Amino acid sequence: MTRKNLTNEMKNNYMVFSPILAEKLGINEAIILDKIHKFMNGPKNKNIHSGKHYVYNSYKNWHTYIFPFLSESTIKRAITRLENLKILESDNFNKLKFDKTKHYTINYLKIDKIINDYESETENSVIKVLNDKSEQFIRIAKNELGSNSNISNEHINKHQQESQFEQDNTNMEYNIISK
User: Fold this and answer.
1) What is the pLDDT of residue 1?
2) What is the fold, at CATH topology level, of the domain defined by 3-106?
3) What angle do CA 172, 176, 179 make, to 5 degrees?
4) Where are the domains of the chain?
5) 50 three-state secondary structure
6) CA-CA distance, 22 to 173, in Å (whole number)?
7) Contact in structure between 88 and 36 (CB atoms under 8 Å)
8) Model confidence over 49-78: pLDDT tens digits?
9) For the chain, which terminal residue's Cβ has fewer other Cβ atoms within 10 angstroms, N or C?
């Protein structure tokens, strides 16, 4: 493959996914969710029911045309999992009774909750690490200086206040970065 062919391939046939959703839901689910999102919001999507945009496909067509690197059973499993988690909503709007092609829309409120929960978990783990480091520093200082040292509670309290100030700044920086 030449560089030009590779560049064209990467421009036209790429898959993108959210690392947060991949971590929380699985990589296959994140990839499928991203592609459904793109199809739903594409300029040619006129498939609207009850004010919601939908996309439709059979599992076979998802595999053949969109996700040839995933087996049909993997696609079905990932979509079923997203439906069970109420992230994907599905329905059948087909006029022919024998047509079982499913139509999908995304529950963006569920996605927002997953992302917000992840960000809160991450923020809380940063705070916990800072608290642990602060407590570890105090223990080490007391051990090294010994019980006969003149380290006072004032020194310890001052360090804890400085540590709290650093945590507050870290939270503020984290909130600015994540917005």
Assistant:
1) 60
2) Arc Repressor Mutant, subunit A (1.10.10)
3) 135
4) 3-106, 111-178
5) coil
6) 25
7) yes
8) 888 888 998 899 999 999 999 999 999 999
9) C
DSSP string, 14-34: -----HHHHHHH-HHHHHHHH
Angstrom CA distances, 63 to 40, 47, 52, 88, stand at: 18, 21, 25, 18
Residues with Cβ within 8 Å of 25's Cβ and at least 6 positions away in sequence, in order, are 33, 81, 82, 85, 87, 114
User: What tokens appear for 123 in the block?
Assistant: 């923020």
d(C-alpha 38, C-alpha 109), whole Å: 17
What are the tokens at 141?
């200082």
Q: Give, as one character, the DSSP assignment of residue 1.
A: -
Give the chain's residues under pLDDT 70: 1-13, 122-179
- Report how far residue 152's alpha carbon sits from residue 155's, in angstroms, rounded to the nearest whole number: 5
The amino acid present at 14, given as its one-letter code, is Y
Vertex 139, ends 138 and 140: CA angle to 5°? Answer: 90
Kindly write down the DSSP assignment for every residue of 97-145, as one continuous string. TT---EEEEE-HHHHHHHHHHHHHHHHHHHHHHHHHHHHHHHHHHHHHH
Q: How far apart are the first and last CA of the chain?
A: 40
Q: 171 Cβ partners below 8 Å, 6+ apart?
A: 123, 126, 127
